[in-house]
Design brief:
- The longest helix has about 140 residues, at about 1-135.
- The protein is built from 1 helix and no strands.
- With about 140 residues, the chain is mainly alpha-helical.
- It has one domain (about 1-95).
- The protein starts with a helix and ends with a helix.
- It is rod-shaped, with a radius of gyration of 56 Å.
């Protein structure tokens, strides 16, 4: 009788528990599958949201890139214009330097002539003064 009592006291609850677990497995598996599907849907929604935001950022980035390309093109054209203007100014400077050098040479020649003319005038004045002094005596 002891075995029957042990089976009755412990075996029946264990058997009932095992039977309940065995019977509940498909429902538990279905619940897990349902939870996994729900999680996958949420991950998919988040991924799609992230993809949409990234697409919007990509469009904005493309707009910024195009604007920067246009700005670079304008700056490059202005740079070329500035280089052309600088080259023209440098050419004009070179011409003015050449003119200044010629004028400096002419100025030196004039100064030399002036010195020579002063010497001649001084010599003539001395000669005239000597001649006057001789006539006055």
């Amino acid at each position: 009788m002891e075995i029957l009592e042990i089976l009755k006291d412990y075996g029946l609850p264990v058997a009932t528990g095992l039977a309940g677990w065995w019977a509940g497995r498909p429902r538990e598996k279905a619940d897990i599958d349902s939870t996994n599907i729900d999680s996958a849907k949420k991950v998919l929604e988040m991924s799609e949201d992230i993809a949409e935001r990234l697409q919007a950022q990509l469009v904005k980035s493309d707009e910024v890139i195009e604007a920067l390309k246009e700005k670079f093109k304008i700056e490059l054209e202005q740079g070329n214009t500035c280089r052309k203007a600088l080259k023209k100014v440098q050419e004009e400077l070179s011409e003015w330097k050449s003119i200044a050098e010629r004028q400096n040479i002419e100025l030196e020649a004039l100064r030399t002539e002036i010195r020579e003319l002063r010497k001649i005038i001084e010599e003539h004045e001395k000669a005239n003064s000597s001649t006057r002094n001789m006539h006055a005596n």
